[in-house]
Every structure is written in structure tokens, then in C-alpha cells.
């Protein structure tokens, strides 16, 4: 899809602030610093619309972006960062539950994982959590530019088997650095969005 417009709608700390327009949405999920915001930027060809950082914990609220006036990308705070207090963790859990359990227009979630590593226990829990809401999950294996071509098949198999990805869910090798996987990711998103 050619992206003609992309803008932030709101950084929402709670449900009351979510955009009311009944526009279909794709949400992101994944551990801190894995590359969720970078995925959004690459998909829409904007350098830093979704703010990124080399330090984990950059995204702290649910950030709604509107693309071509057609759909929302929802950037979310990551999980699995050790230096987070109990209070902050509970706040994060509430934020996720409020969104994933109740958001009517959510059409699919892009679960971002790092292709270099075996998915963590947190990644497994997240995949199962998303599946229990009956929303399709696209697993994006990002940072593909960081492994050798010869390692790809083995790493992707490890991801598929560790997460026990269901047949209806796509596993898409991706790089926010090179843009590899972008076309497949768009195709999958558009089919979920029914656009
Ligand atoms: P939080 O908002 O903190 O949860 O992080 P995030 O998941 O949004 O990660 P973010 O997009 O901010 O990226 C984290 C770091 O990884 C940044 O330094 C990015 O430049 C880098 N990064 C993200 N994707 C890729 C990729 O595909 N390849 C490479 N080489 N680096 C990447
Ligand atoms: Mg982020």
C-alpha cells in the first residue's frame, strides 16, 4: 500500500482516551526494545513517527496512528524489561487487558520477536494470551539483517516451534533496517483489515 498520510491520533493512558472512530486496527506487541515502533516506521516509511530508542521502555502509552485515513496502528509498551517496578508492571497489565479484551475494531496483532533468539517465556505467554482473545496474530521475526542468510531457516523453525504458531497465523521474516519482509507484512495486514 502506498502511504500518503500517517499521523498520531493520541497517546492514550486509559480506555477513555481511545479514538472513537470505528476504524479497523492493527496492534503491536513484543518485548521492550525488540523493534515494535521501528516496525511501524518502516511499514509507513517514516523515520521516527513512532518514537524509537536504543534504551528499553521508550513507548509507555498506547499510541494510535492513523494511516491513509483507513486504519490505525496501535503501538504498545513492551514487556520483559527487568528494571520495572511491581507497580509499573501492574499498570502495564491493566493497560493490555483493557485494550486486548475489549477493543472491538482490533483485527490482528503483530507480535514482534527477535529472530536471533529463541522466543522467551514472556513471548510464549504473550502469544497464548493474544490467541485466547481469538484475534489473528502475525508473528514478525525482526532484525533479520543481524543474522547470516544460512541461519535463517533454522532460526525461523526455532521461533515457530517455541511459540507453537498455529497454522492460520503468519510468521514473517522482517528487517526494519533493510525493509525485507515489508511486502509480505503489508499483504497480510491488508487481508486482516479487509482493505
Ligand atoms: P519499546 O518501545 O521500548 O518497547 O521498544 P520497541 O519495541 O518499540 O523498539 P524500537 O523500535 O524503539 O527499537 C529498539 C532498537 O532496536 C532501536 O535501536 C532500533 O534501531 C533497533 N532495531 C529495531 N528493529 C531493527 C531491525 O530490524 N534491525 C536492526 N539492526 N535494528 C533494529
Ligand atoms: Mg516502542
From TrEMBL:
Entry's Gene Ontology cellular component terms: cytosol
Cofactor(s) needed: Mg(2+)
Pfam families in the cross-refs: MMR_HSR1
GO-annotated biological processes: division septum assembly
CDD domains xrefs: YihA_EngB
Domain EngB-type G: start-end pairs: 22-195
Coiled coil feature spans: none
GO MF entry, a single one: metal ion binding
Keywords: Cell cycle, Cell division, GTP-binding, Magnesium, Metal-binding, Nucleotide-binding, Septation
Family of the protein in this entry: Belongs to the TRAFAC class TrmE-Era-EngA-EngB-Septin-like GTPase superfamily. EngB GTPase family.
HAMAP family cross-referenced by the UniProt entry: GTPase_EngB
PANTHER family tied to this protein: ENGB-TYPE G DOMAIN-CONTAINING PROTEIN, MSS1/TRME-RELATED GTP-BINDING PROTEIN
Function of the protein: Necessary for normal cell division and for the maintenance of normal septation.
Protein name: Probable GTP-binding protein EngB
Amino acid at each position: 500500500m502506498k502511504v500518503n498520510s500517517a499521523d498520531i491520533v493520541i497517546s492514550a493512558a486509559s480506555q477513555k482516551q481511545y479514538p472513537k472512530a470505528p476504524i479497523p486496527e492493527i496492534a503491536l506487541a513484543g518485548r521492550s526494545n525488540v523493534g515494535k515502533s521501528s516496525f511501524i516506521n518502516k511499514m509507513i516509511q517514516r523515520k521516527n513517527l513512532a518514537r524509537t530508542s536504543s534504551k528499553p521502555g521508550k513507548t509507555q502509552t498506547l499510541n494510535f496512528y492513523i494511516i491513509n485515513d483507513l486504519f490505525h496502528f496501535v503501538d504498545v509498551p513492551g514487556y520483559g524489561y527487568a528494571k520495572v517496578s511491581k507497580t509499573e508492571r501492574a499498570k502495564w497489565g491493566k493497560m493490555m487487558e483493557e485494550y486486548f479484551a475489549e477493543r472491538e475494531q482490533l483485527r490482528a496483532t503483530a507480535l514482534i520477536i527477535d529472530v536471533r533468539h529463541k522466543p522467551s517465556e514472556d513471548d510464549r505467554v504473550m502469544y497464548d494470551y493474544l490467541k485466547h482473545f481469538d484475534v489473528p496474530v502475525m508473528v514478525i521475526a525482526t532484525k533479520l539483517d543481524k543474522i547470516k542468510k544460512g541461519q535463517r531457516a533454522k532460526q525461523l523453525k526455532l521461533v515457530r516451534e517455541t511459540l507453537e504458531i498455529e497454522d492460520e497465523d503468519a510468521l514473517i521474516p522482517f528487517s526494519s533496517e533493510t525493509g525485507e519482509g515489508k511486502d509480505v507484512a503489508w499483504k497480510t495486514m491488508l487481508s486482516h483489515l479487509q482493505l
